Amino acid sequence: MHRARKRFGQNFLHDAGIIDRIVGSIAPKPGQHMVEIGPGRGALTEPLLEATGGELDVVELDRDLIPILKTQFFRHENLRIHEADALTFDFNTLVTDDRPLRLVGNLPYNISTPLMFHLLDYSDHIHDMHFMLQKEVVQRLCAAPGDNAYGRLGIMIQYYCEARYLFTVPPGAFAPPPKVESAIVRLNPRTTIEYPADDPDKLAVVVRTAFNQRRKTLRNNLKPLMSAEAIESLGLNPGERAENLSIRDFVMLANHLSRTESSA
Ligand SMILES: C[S@@+](CC[C@H](N)C(=O)[O-])C[C@H]1O[C@@H](n2cnc3c(N)ncnc32)[C@H](O)[C@@H]1O
Predict the structure, then answer these.
(1) Nearest-angstrom CA–CA distance, 153 and 135
(2) What is the CB-side half-sphere exposure of residue 233 using CA atoms within 13 A?
(3) What is the mean pLDDT of residues 170-174?
(4) Which of 106, 117, 132 is the best mutation target for the ligand 1 pocket, counting ligand atoms within 8 Å of the beta carbon and taking the most?
(5) Per-domain residue ranges for the chain?
(6) Whose Cα sits closest to atom 14 in ligand 1?
(7) How far apart (Å, rounded) are the C-alpha atoms in residues 202 and 189?
């Protein structure tokens, strides 16, 4: 018998109603290229295989789960089991035709943020991603300017993806139950970025610096990068706080930084 491992963030789904609701929101169809990250003991794998007509890629790190999955799904010859760390896995190796990937995962909470950033590298090949995450993380991913949860994570992810909070999942849906509530998020990589940054790395720097001390103004937080006059010249109020700026505002600040640095 496989014992749930804390190290791998193993909280297995066992509530049939919640599993149905998750798969219903994903709405997988035959012929689509679904990929599940962290299949665990197969709670989502089974209905995903059923919906796609038997084709699925899964990426699982815990090597003790691999033989269990192989035994459980031995009839499914189009289930491809990859024993790998999703954080370093090259998702391009799964792209073998013109079908975009649809990613699904009840993710270990400790890897969720780095994993989402890793997956952004493949966004050209991804149609959508549905993840179960800690509720607070989903709130941050989907937050709008002015929300308490609005900050670095939401801005950087929403720059690349549309993010939607689908629903909350209580701890009792898992065995063992986690200490916190969870939620399902849908991320759709944008086909075109409305306000592109000249250099996305500069956008990351500006956002990080602007939120350095949340209660402080742009004038104060951005001092190491630009003057209050420069902020004003972009039509922004230096007395404003970062939490009230739109993604477009951050892009303007980042582009100002790239342009002044390249002309210096
Ligand atoms: C929260 S459990 C979910 C299991 C199953 N999908 C479910 O819903 O019951 C997370 C799963 O991700 C796996 N995992 C943890 N870290 C991983 C990583 N870096 N790469 C791939 N899988 C990982 C764990 O072993 C576990 O099976």
Answers:
(1) 14
(2) 10
(3) 98
(4) 106
(5) 6-189, 200-263
(6) 38
(7) 20
How far, in Å, is the centroid of ligand 1 from the Cα of 106? Answer: 7
pLDDT at position 4, please? 82
**In terms of C-beta density within 10 A (0-12 exposed, 13-18 middle, 19 or more buried), how is residue 229 classed?**
exposed
* Residue whose CA is at the smallest distance from ligand 1 atom 5: 40
Ligand 1 geometric centre to CA of 38 (Å): 3
Task: Please give the distance, rounded to the nearest whole angstrom, from the Cα atom of residue 107 to the centre of ligand 1.
Answer: 6
Q: Does domain 6-189 have CATH number 2.40.50.1020?
A: no
ipTM, 2 dp: 0.99
User: 243 C-alpha vs ligand 1 centroid, how far in Å?
Assistant: 33
Nearest alpha carbon, ligand 1 atom 9? 12
CA-proximal residue: ligand 1, atom 6 (nearest): 39
pLDDT per residue as tens digits for the range 62-113: 999 999 999 999 999 999 999 999 999 999 999 999 999 999 999 998 899 9
What integer best gives the mean pLDDT of the chain?
A: 96
pLDDT at 262: 72
Q: Find out whether 92 is annotated in a ligand binding site.
A: no
pTM of this prediction? 0.95
First to last CA, the chain: 64
Which residues are paired to 183 by β-bridges?
A: 133, 168
Distance (Å, rounded) from C-alpha 259 to C-alpha 133? 37
Give the pLDDT score at 240.
Answer: 97
200-263 — its CATH code? 1.10.8.100
The response to whether 13 counts as a known ligand-binding position is yes
